[in-house]
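Homework help board

Subject: predicted structure for assignment chain

Our instructor gave us this sequence and asked us to write out the predicted structure in token form, then describe one feature. I got the tokens but I'm not sure how to describe them. Can anyone check?
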Amino acid sequence: MNQPADETHVIPLPESQGTDDIHESVQAVNDAVKKSSAWVGLLKNEIAQNIVGQEMLINRLLIGLLTGGHILLEGLPGLAKTLAVKTLATTVSTDFRRIQFTPDMLPADIIGTEIYNPRDTSFEVKKGPLFSSIILADEINRAPSKVQSALLEAMQEKQVTIGESTFNLPELFLVLATQNPIEQEGTYPLPEAQVDRFMLKVVVDYPSREQERRILDMVDHLDSKISVQPIIAPDDILAARSVVDSIYLDDRIKEYIVDLVYATREPAKIDAAMGDYIETGASPRATLNLKIAARALAYLNGRGFVIPDDIKDCALDVLRHRIRISYEAEAEGITSEDLIHKLLDTVPVP
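My token output:
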């Protein structure tokens, strides 16, 4: 796993633009980030009352909050995926809905439907649970394709169509989905088009032994949990997003992002063997999401500029679900994560 970015890293300014004006501009953004991100530590401390460890998971959820990017959480049952999302939603003063996906679910169960009103002899729209700011799509891969299609419109367009009417979703709209990687009975593989709409795919692992011991001390009953308090309002999050968008991204960092994504499409140029292992490379959404996620990571670290370690830190979660490996790779036990690590070790870093 890549080490966290060094806070003392020199701001990477291009030689042709290394003027005092650029330095002052970056410093202004740096100051704005430090002032704007004061809530991050408070929110993490509040979440830590319910969640032991899982720092990487919490950071990824915050990236989604700061960018509006949807996140797919994959992990075995009992690893606090659902609890982490619910706790995060509680720390934000906004509406939150949990939707439990099932094989018999219909699109109307999530988006709503038209109901006939005999008194007025007309149809009225009854909105579904999808009309909320933070959505927990629990076990998302249990729902059939029609439900996924309805959810896809909401994720991509931030709108919902019911009958002949189209309704906009809240400006702060975020889908945090979970799925179990080992259970296949009663599940439907998510369409590739929908998987690509998830900004990050985060694989949640077991806690360490020390963290498990802390969980044992903290929890007396299986249903016990500590009440957390709201820390930030939606308007503050939207304001933070504007600061994230202003974070400095050097041209050499941009070239590095493009080099990484193109390496997934033309892997043989990096390593001859890799050409046989990658069937389909990452889409342009990977390029955009690497940029956005790296800026969010810089914000969480209190920096007004992106460094290469930010790209490396989020590359695995941005790329793992966008690379389709070949049968040869599967036969040799090579995963998409293995190939991404190889690319990160091979592609020149600015």
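Reply (TA_rk): Your tokens look well-formed. For the description, you could write something like this. Confidence is low (pLDDT under 50) at residues 1-11, 13-17. That's the kind of observation they're looking for.
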